[in-house]
Every structure is written in C-alpha cells, then in structure tokens.
C-alpha cells in the first residue's frame, strides 16, 4: 500500500471519528432497512466475477451490523434476494443462493443477532427453507439486534400475503365476509405483514446511487426517511453509515406531508 493510500485511509478514519463525535444518539433510528445494491457493478469495476461481487457484499453485512450495535438501532432489515431475482440466469442465481445461505448461517452462529425471515418461504429451495427455520429457532433467545433477512421478498407480494392471511384467519374463526369487511383497516392488515408487531423502518438506506425503493417494504415505509448513497454496497464504509445517521438526525420528520 503506497503512502497516498495510507494517508487517504487515515483521513477517512479521522473524518469518521469527527462525524461520530457530533452524532446525536438520541436521534438514531430504531429500525433501519437496507437495500444492498451494487454488488455486480462493484465486481465489474474491480475486474472480478459476479459471484465475487456477491461474496464481497455478503462479507460487508456483519461489519454493518457491528456499526449498528454501537448505536441504539434495534431492528435491521437486509434485502438479500427479491422475488424478481429468480428471473436471473441460473449460473448467477445458484451461486447467489449459496452465498445467501452462508450469510444466514454466519448470522445465526455469531450469537449477537436474532434472525427473522421476511419473504415468501415457498419460493425458496428446500435447503434454504431449512437453513432459515434453523436460524430463527437457534437465535430466538438472543437479546440483540433483530435482523430481518428479506429473502424471496417483494413488497407487493407481502401485502397480498397479508390480506390472504387475514382472510384465512377470519375463515378459521367463522367470521362472515360482511364482518370481515367492517374489520379491515390499516392496523388489521399491518398485523399480518411479515414484520408483524415490529416497528416500521425509520430510515431506509440504498447504496449504488439508485434512487428508488424497487418494492422494498412498500407498506412499512410510508413515513420512512430515505438515504441514497453513491457507493456500491461492498465498498460501503463506516463513514458512509455515520453520514446516513447524521442526515437522518438533521431532518424534521413530518408525518402526513
């Protein structure tokens, strides 16, 4: 590593400490959603393979959660695989599923996180389903950050599944369609979402410069703040995270307009 690179890294660390020192910890979001975008573009820019890009993105996750654990963040939702991703070529999808399985196993084995799957389980291969169930069971007792792993997730699908679940529950109880129609409201649907009784995200971070949600937590993010970062996910640094928190703390949240 040359002198210029060493100097740059020292300056970044100094700047990160300065930003952290001025951070208002009373204004830290309690739930952060992350759209981890840019693995493939990072790989292309680095002259690496797509699989290497996904692995680099996977390696960033525990580092990111470590930063969250230094604050008062209580819930983190990580979008690892969308329903649209199943349309990717098999030569990319199969290694990606293996990498994601590895992420879930690592998170469960860490001992600091409580793992919860959000998404359509039936879309996933049987082995992935087993890994997710085992991760949830083995970490259910953990008193740490609740980590939602969004795998096989789509925002529209979540709302459809919530409505379906609500109708099936009503049918099991013998509720008439008229009574069910009278009972439908925002809270009733919200209770049947994948995130159930969890608080909605206060802040959603998307990396890679794209400025759209792409269907991420459509229901829960109605009042969320968004932070779009130009950096590709594998290159996301602590200073980028702290900037997102600083930006969030500086905003005056106005619900409803």
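-> sequence recovered:
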């Amino acid at each position: 590593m040359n002198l210029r690179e060493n100097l740059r890294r020292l300056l970044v660390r100094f700047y990160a400490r300065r930003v952290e020192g001025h951070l208002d910890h009373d204004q830290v979001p309690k739930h952060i959603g992350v759209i981890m975008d840019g693995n493939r573009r990072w790989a292309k820019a680095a002259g690496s393979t797509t699989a290497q890009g996904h692995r680099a993105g996977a390696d960033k996750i525990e580092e990111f959660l470590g930063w969250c654990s230094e604050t008062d963040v209580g819930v983190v939702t990580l979008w690892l695989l969308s329903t649209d991703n199943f349309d990717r070529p098999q030569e990319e999808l199969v290694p990606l599923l293996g990498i994601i399985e590895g992420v879930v196993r690592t998170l469960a084995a860490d001992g600091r996180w409580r793992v919860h799957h959000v998404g359509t389980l039936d879309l996933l291969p049987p082995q992935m389903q087993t890994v997710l169930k085992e991760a949830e069971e083995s970490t259910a007792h953990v008193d740490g950050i609740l980590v939602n792993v969004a795998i096989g997730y789509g925002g529209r699908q979540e709302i459809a599944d919530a409505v379906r679940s609500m109708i099936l529950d009503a049918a099991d109880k013998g509720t008439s369609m008229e009574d069910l129609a009278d009972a439908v409201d925002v809270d009733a649907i919200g209770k049947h979402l994948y995130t159930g009784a969890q608080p909605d995200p206060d802040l959603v971070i998307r990396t890679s410069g794209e400025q759209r949600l792409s269907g991420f937590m459509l229901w829960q993010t109605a009042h969320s703040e968004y932070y779009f970062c130009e950096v590709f996910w594998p290159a996301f640094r602590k200073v980028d995270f702290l900037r997102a928190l600083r930006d969030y703390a500086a905003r005056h949240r106005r619900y409803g307009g």
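The beta strands are 31-35, 75-82, 113-118, 145-153, 203-206, 225-228.
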